Amino acid sequence: MTHAVVTGAASGIGRAVAEHFTQAGAQLTLVDVDADRLAAVADALGARHHVVDLCDTDGPAAAVGDSWRTHGPVDVLVNAAGIYPSLDMIDVTAAGWDRVFALNTRAPVLATAELVRLAAAAGRPASVVNISSGAALRARPGGGPYAASKAALEMATRAAALEFGPLGIRVNAVSPGFVAVDSVCNPVADAYATAVSGNPLGRPGTPADIARAVLWIAGPEASWVTGEILRVDGGSSAGAAHLPRLWPPDAPAADRTGTRAADTDTSTTTDIATGAGASGSAAAFPAPLHHTPGTLPNSTKGPTT
Ligand SMILES: NC(=O)c1ccc[n+]([C@@H]2O[C@H](COP(=O)([O-])OP(=O)(O)OC[C@H]3O[C@@H](n4cnc5c(N)ncnc54)[C@H](O)[C@@H]3O)[C@@H](O)[C@H]2O)c1
């Protein structure tokens, strides 16, 4: 039976991960600093738990080491504990920056290192999943330290995957888009939640959406996946959906060739079906496709992107 250690399991995404692993038949050791909430979740799931402050320098290794020695070899480690305070870059203090990095970046790295030492000594494979964030790719006001901590976590994930792959230990990350968790330690204003809730799939994400992805990438179905950052965000990171089109959809359509504005020289005319220029060779500057296949902006008015 799989033994999974889940940090940050007292709340939100970590709790959902713990629930999904339990439903999948795993033995759980849950870790968090919030003793009361952790005990309640552990009771509900019939899981063991360790109260650990993962910001302590020895906390992460102790969490994994104690779990291994007390409850048996650890197969899966999910590093979900995290904080995302609102902290403007001009207000950053050494202590504030260090705390964000201690929990969001250092703790997953140290916990993983301890698991790798124990697993390697025992000749066992293992799988680690770090919980990153869309913030790793995109800064926002007040989110600088958090975004930086998650960007660092993503690179640490890749570096660990490279080094530990030969030991049979996979290291991946799941990067959630915003999901409401009603957190005590990570409060989010309604205005922010509303502003970030849009995504191409058109519905809010849930902790369960994230947990299913963690369960998959941690498990045997993903046995040839390592160093991957799996974005689970309804498509939010796919692009800038809020931007207008380059050229209005209702602009008059030209013929089915894409002629760059101010181009009257037929040698620069591009066939949009083949990409070939009038001379028969591939165009150096392919014409931009209009959003409706086969239509292009009026070539005499269009921008010269
Ligand atoms: N909710 C989101 O929209 C979202 C989006 C992207 C990424 N994330 C990430 O998901 C993870 C879980 O966040 P969440 O949204 O479920 O928040 P949450 O506040 O519900 O859960 C965080 C957990 O971490 C625990 N924790 C805090 N400090 C700790 C410490 N020093 N030692 C041990 N445990 C500690 C808290 O007690 C809590 O149980 C975090 O890493 C977060 O960055 C969340």
From TrEMBL:
> Where is the segment annotated Disordered?
241-305
* Bias (Polar residues): 295-305
Q: What SMART domains does its record include?
A: PKS_KR (SM00822)
Tell me the keywords, alphabetical order. Oxidoreductase
* Composition bias type Low complexity, residue spans: 254-284
Superkingdom, taxonomy of origin: Bacteria
- Molecular functions (GO terms): oxidoreductase activity
Q: What is this protein called?
A: Dehydrogenase
Q: Where is the Ketoreductase domain?
A: 2-177
| UniProt feature coiled coil, ranges | none
> Which family, according to the similarity comment?
Belongs to the short-chain dehydrogenases/reductases (SDR) family.
